[in-house]
Amino acid sequence: MAKLPKVPVVIVGMGWVGGIIAAELTKAGVQVVGLERGKSRSTEDYFMDHDELRYARRFELMQDLSKETITFRNTESMRALPMRSYGSFLLGDGLGGAGSHWNGQTHRFLPYDFEIYSQTVDRYGKGKIPAGMQLQDWGITYDEIEPYYDKFEQMAGISGESEANPMLGKRSHPFPTPPMKKTPILQRFEEASKKLGYHPYMIPSANLSENYKNPDGVSRAACQYCGFCERFGCEYGAKADPVVTVIPTAMATGKLEVRTFSNVTEILHDGKKATGVVYINTVTGEEVTQPADVVILGSFVLNNVRLLLSSKLGTPYDRKTGRGTIGRNYAYQVNSGRAVGFYDDEEFSTFMGAGALGMEFDDFNGDNFDHSDLKFLHGAGIRISQNGLRPIENNPAPKGTPTWGKEWKKTTLKYANRVLTVATQGASLPWKHHYLDLDPTYKDIYGKPLLRITFDFEDQDRELTKFLADKAGEVMKEMGPSHVEVKDKLDPYNIVPYQSTHNTGGVIMGADPETSAVNSYLQMWEAENVFVVGASAFPHNSGYNPTDTVGALAYRAAEGIQKYLKQGGMLV
Questions:
Q1: Domain Glucose-methanol-choline oxidoreductase C-terminal: where (predicted)?
Q2: Which of 70, 297, 408, 495 is the most buried (most CB within 10 A)?
Q3: Catalytic site residue 269?
C-alpha cells in the first residue's frame, strides 16, 4: 500500500459538494486534494451527442452496478436483494457526479421545513405527529441558511421569477437571470391554475435563460432548449454543472489536485478524529493511503452513509432502540400522484424543452394549507414540466390500449405530441423503521459490504398522494383535454421503475448529538475534523428538488471548515 504525504484537506467525491467546498477553500489559500471514483469529464465529451440510448437507457454517466450497488427491502421481515439494473434512482459517477446529469430544477426549501417539528407542534399539537414518525428540526432556520442559498444561486446563474411565489421565505437578492421561456403549454397551465385561485410561477432553473458571468468570473452560454438534460451532460455549458462552474474556479487557484479513478473505501481514524482515507486506484488496483488534517465526505447520500458505516466512524442507528445516528431518517420522495390529459384535436411541441422548463404552485406544499382535518403532514408542489419527451422513453397511450402490436403502435403514434401531465412532487417524512445499514450478505468487488435500504411508503404518503392527485386532476381538466386520467393510488415502494434520485438522510443535521450526526456546519459530533456534506444531512425530504439546499449547505460547510482550520474544536 502506497502512503502519500499529508495534505490539509481531502474531499471524497467531486460533484456539487466537492466542487463548491474546493472552490471556497482554494480561494482562501488552502491546499485541497479531491478524490473522484469515476473519470474526468468536460463539455467536449457531449458535443453533438444527443444519444438517448447511450445516456438515458444504458446509463453512461452512472455508477456500474455490476461492481457496486445497494440492496433493498420494504421491511425487516424481507430478505434484501441487490439492485441489478437501474430503476428507482440513478447513482452518478465521474467528475461532476449527479451535478452533471441532473435536470436543473433549483428550489429552496420552505421556512417550515427547517423547523418542521416545532411549527407542527405549535400549530396542531404533538398528537398530529403519528407514532413512529421521527420529525425533528434541522438545527438551523431558513433565515440562517438564506445567504447560502443566495450564494449558490448567484454562482450557478439560476433563472427565475423573484417575486412570483408568495409561499416562500424572503430573498436577499433577486434571481441573477430572468425566467426561462413561457411556452404555450406552460401558459395553459398558468391560466388554469390561476382560474382555480392558485399561484403558479416559473420553476427556478439552472438551465440559463441568457448568457451569464458569475461572481467568480465564469461565463456560460444560454440554454438552447434541446430537451437533453436529465441523464445527459450539457454540450453548451448552459446547465449549471460543477465541471463548468466551481471546479474550474478551484483549479484556477493552483491549490486543487483532482485525482480521478480514485474510489475511497475507508476513512482512517483513531476513534475521535480522522487521520486520512484509503482509496483504490481503479485503473491499476493499487491501494493508496492519503493522510489529511480534515476529511470531507461530499459523495452521494448513499455512499456517504456506507463509507461511515464500513469505516466504523460514528454510532450506527439501531432501529429497535432508536439510538445511534448513522443511517437514521432515510427518506425518499413521494411523487406518484399525477393527472394525464390526452388531446385528440391538438398537438404540442413536447419534444422540445429543457430540464427545468416548467411551472409550479405551492398552495399545497409544506404547511401552506390547513392540515387539521387531513391524515397527513406536509404536501407537494403541483407542476407541469416541458423537459423534452424523447422517443425511446416516451410512448404514451390511454388506459386500455394494448401494450404491444399494431394497435399499440397506432395509438402511441397518435398521442406522441398530444399528452400533457400535471404532476405532484411530495415530501417524504422520516419513520423509525426507515433506515440505512450494511448488508450482512452482499459485498462489492473489493469485498466491502453493500449498503442496505429498508423503506416503504406509509399511509401518510398514500393520503398525501390521493389529496394532491385530485388537485392536479382539477387543474388538468381546466386545461381542456379530450379526457383525463388521474393516478391517485400509491403502490408499495419498489426499486423499479424510475421514480426520483432524491434520496436523503442517514447522516442528519441537528442541535442534539443524540438525534443527529452532524451540526449546522455538517461537522460530525463524534469526529470533529470530519464534515459530511450533502442531502445525507436532511432530517426529512421536502416537496422540492434537493440541489439548491445541498448547494447552500455546502457553502455553509465551507465557511465552517475554514473556521475549523484556524481554530479547531466543535463549531457553534
A1: 440-554
A2: 297
A3: no
